[in-house]
Specification:
The protein has 5 helices and 22 strands. It has 318 residues and is mainly β. Strands 1, 4, 14, 15, 16, 17, 18, 19, 20, 21 and 22 form an 11-stranded antiparallel β-sheet that branches. Strands 2-3-5-12-7-10 form a 6-stranded antiparallel β-sheet, with no helix packed on it. It has a 3-stranded antiparallel β-sheet with strand order 9-8-11, with no helix packed on it. The longest helix has 9 residues. The structure holds zinc ion. The site of zinc ion has 4 residues, from loops.
Length: 318
């Protein structure tokens, strides 16, 4: 049973910055590094095994080679790999957007819908994002405000700070604002409906495509439903805080003082995204090193493993 370091695919969307390269050691030649897809079996941006005898395989190829047992019993109900984890560096505002739920996305797009969660890894002073509506509005008002460019008068802007969490169920209108670096845990989907893009043009000089009709089909026209605040739990050598849990993923923030013993049980693989610190991860077979920005995949049923070194990390299971 294995502990694997992963390496990501990258995206150079127009709003991206360079922090993932400059501060998170990402090896990427793109001018802008908007997103790194840290844990991904999606065809639009696979992640790769970067340690051990299977280095060079995509994560999807690794799972194919070793069997779906490496994902754990809680993944059996998912036909596709269930989740996707990204780091996102927004130097500029992202478009105002929405994602469909599973039923709509499977029917119209042929892939999963997207419920997602944001963990604010870092942000500029005063940075803001858009999260749902201030109050409920009608379908007619939604349509007319899109048409006359006044949608932002009824959307909910939220000032953010490091460590904040936003649970974004499919259908929730949202936009990451400039100056925010986010860890995003989401369903395995690349379907986004853009409603408003600040009049920007893409790399080809043309306005980026909007998807207003589909957005009208799927947007929940009400305030966002946030995940309830949870307590910090003290364990031997570390603390954990549940960030959110839904039918697709369960994610914790971990703060490890010097060393901690964690476990990958039979139910799910474990994804660790290291956000601060240098660590060694060890089980009875192997040891790998990981630092700020690195992503680690531990196969289901691996049992106990030790994280040596102080760090902050986001841990996700299915
Ligand atoms: Zn989104």
């Amino acid at each position: 049973m294995a502990i694997l370091k992963l390496s990501p695919s990258f995206k150079d969307y127009i709003w991206g910055g360079t922090r993932l390269r400059d501060e998170y050691s990402k090896k990427c030649d793109l001018d802008r590094v908007a997103e790194s897809w840290e844990l991904s079996c999606h065809k639009d941006g696979p992640s790769f095994v970067a340690s051990g005898g299977d280095a060079g395989l995509t994560l999807a190829e690794y799972i194919e080679k070793h069997g779906r047992g490496v994902l754990g019993s809680d993944c059996e109900s998912f036909e596709e790999f269930p989740i996707l984890i990204k780091l996102i560096d927004a130097k500029d505002n992202l478009s105002v957007q929405v994602h469909p739920d599973n039923d709509y996305a499977m029917r119209v797009e042929g892939e999963y819908g997207k419920t997602e969660m944001w963990y604010i890894v870092d942000c500029d002073e005063g940075a803001q994002l858009l999260y749902g509506f201030k109050h409920e509005i009608s379908k007619e008002e939604f349509a007319s405000r899109i048409a006359d460019n006044t949608l932002l008068e009824v959307t909910n802007s939220v000032k953010v700070k490091k460590g904040d969490v936003f649970f974004i169920r499919s259908g929730t209108l949202h936009a990451i604002g400039k100056g925010i670096l986010i860890a995003e845990i989401q369903q395995n989907s690349n379907t986004t409906y853009r409603i408003y893009d600040y009049g920007r043009v893409g790399a080809d000089g043309k306005p980026r495509q909007l998807h207003v009709e589909k957005a009208k089909d799927v947007t929940t026209l009400a305030p966002a439903q946030s995940y309830p605040e949870t307590p910090v739990e003290q364990h031997d050598g570390y603390t954990s805080k549940l960030l959110s849990s839904c039918e697709y993923f369960t994610t914790y923030a971990l703060d490890i003082e010097a060393s901690a013993e964690l476990e990958a049980d039979e139910k799910s693989f474990v994804s660790l995204l290291i956000l601060e610190g240098d660590v060694k991860l060890t089980n009875e077979n192997e040891t790998i090193e990981a630092k700020k920005g690195d992503s680690v995949f531990i196969t289901a049923g691996s049992g106990k493993f030790t994280v040596c070194g102080g760090c902050k990390a986001v841990m996700t299971k299915v």
